[in-house]
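user: Please review this fold.
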Amino acid sequence: MVPVRRRHWAYVWIPLLGSFIWFGMLLAMLLTWVCTGRPKYVSQEGSIAYISDVGADFLKPLFVAGCSVTAISFFLSLLVERYLRHSGRLMPNMRMRERVFGTLAVLGSFIGGCGLILLSVFDTKRFPSLHRAFLLVFMLGVALSAIFTITEYRWISKDFLDVKRLKIAYIAKAIIATLLILLAFAFGVTLYKAINVGAILEWTISFGFTFYLLTFFYDLRQSKGIQRGELSRERM
C-alpha cells in the first residue's frame, strides 16, 4: 500500500508530463527553425514561421505526438481533479452550480484537446481550412474550460475563506488565462492583418499555455496526505 502522504504522486505527474512535453516540443521546433537558417516553409507566408508551418514539414511526427500527449494530459488533469473533489480528497463542491461548472470545464478540456490533436493531424500545408477550423476549436475549448474552472474555484473559495490555497489557485489561473485569451484575440486579428506579428503571438501564447498546465500540478498536489472522504461535502 502506498502511504497517504505519497498517494498524490499517482496523478500529479499528469500535468507535469503534459507541460514538459508541450514546452519541449515547442522549443525543439523553434530551435530547429532557427538553427537551420530560418528557412521559409511551403505553407509559410511571412518571414517568421508559425508553429503550424514547422509542424507541417518534416517535424510533423513530433508535432502530432506532442500535441496528442498534451491534449490527453490536459483532459486527464481536469478529470482527475473532478474525481478527487468528488471523492473528498480536495475541497468539495457545496452547491450544484460548482459541480455543473466543474463538469463543463472537463467537457471544454475534451473539446479543446480534440481540436489540438486534429489541428496537428490536418496540417496547414495539406489541409489549411481544416487546420484553422480545428485551431479555433482548440482555442475556444481551452478558453471555455479555463473560464468554467476559474468560476468554480472562485465559488468554492467563497465557502472556505480560510483556505488560502484555493484563492491562490484561482487567481493564478485567472491571471494566466486572461492574458492568454487577450493575446488570442490579438492573434486572431494579426493572423490576417500582420502575419509576422501573428507568428510571434502564436509562439508566445503557446509557450504561455505551459504555465496554465502547471497550475493543475498545484491543484492536484493539494490532496497530499488527505484520506478519501476526509473533505467530503457532508463533513465540511
